Amino acid sequence: MSDWSANQPPRGRRPQPNRPQGGYDYYQGMQPPQPPPPQQPPRQAAPPPQQPTAPRRPQAGGGRPPAPPRKKRWPRRVGIALGLVVLLLAGLIGYVDSVLQRTPALADYEGRPADTPGTNWLLVGSDSRQGLDESRREELSAGDAGGRRTDTMMLVHIPAGDGQPSLISLPRDSSVPIAGHGRGKLNAAFSYGGPKLLVQTVETVTGVHLDHYAEIGLGGFAELVNAVGGVEMCLDQPLRDPKIDLALEAGCQQLDGPQALGFVRSRAFAQGDLQRVQNQRKLLGALIGKATSPATLFNPFRLFPLISGAGDTFLVDNNDHVWHLAWLAWTMGDISSGQGVTATVPIAGFDRLNGQSVVKWDSAQASAMFEAIANDRPIPPGVLPD
User: Fold this and answer.
1) Single pTM value for the model
2) Phi/psi class of residue 131: alpha, beta or left (left: φ > 0; alpha: ψ in -120 to 50)?
3) How much of the chain exceeds pLDDT 90, in percent?
4) N- or C-end of the chain: fewer Cβ atoms within 10 A?
């Protein structure tokens, strides 16, 4: 009997554990063919480890985290605004200089004093009604007088060094020699020959070489006062002048343009013209002080009308410009603040000339005053009457 029939395992084979009973399984341990494993892509280098970041703090209400702060742009905007203001101001100054009224006031003549140290101005207040209509004349109590005359004449000296500037009033009724017209009142020189003859007369009697000339009319003066918002004047006693329709109370008060004009024109005083020149210096100082104050310089609603009004207000020499006027205004600001000298030319008394009352200068003291100015020296205190 074969080994197969005896149900015995073939020779040479050992029984296998866990083999099923009842026969030998030829397929024991055999597995169907497996497909080849898929090819794996080549490994890439692992990214470098990242630094741990701090967790963001959640916002209240669950909103987004705050955006990074923006760069401050206000310095740039302020710079642009200031640049525009400077350009606008420069354009306005150029325009005003182009419309300034000019005249050949400082002309050479035989015997004219040589150039003296420092800078000298002749300031003139004219009573010209030119450009004033009937309603404006009535408002200013200017009357109907024609032509041009001068009520105010002042000599301003600006020293070349650190000395004090000076403002000297020259009374209009001063008895002086006038070239080609003999002796007469100082303001008559203006009536005879305008600014040119007036400048020559002042230079002749003072010996001071004039470098600049500025004239302002009635309407222009009132406009400047209004442009700065009025000026404050303090009066020791009431002032009444029916001739120019002026009524001011005693004490400190704000004067508008017409009132300020009446104040500097009035002669309703015991000393007449001598008191008037003091009032003129007083109000001019207040006007310049207000015009150069921060309240005006940093207020475009006052500064621009003041600058633009200067073009229609001032009559200057052919070689004068608006920056010369600005320099004058700055100097006058120093004088009004007490850093300068203000006075009237020394007076000896009154006299009669051609049937009119005139003012006589004190020759010795006046000569000492103007000699000091011509040589750019301080005025001797003994010749300062007020």
Assistant:
1) 0.72
2) left
3) 34
4) N
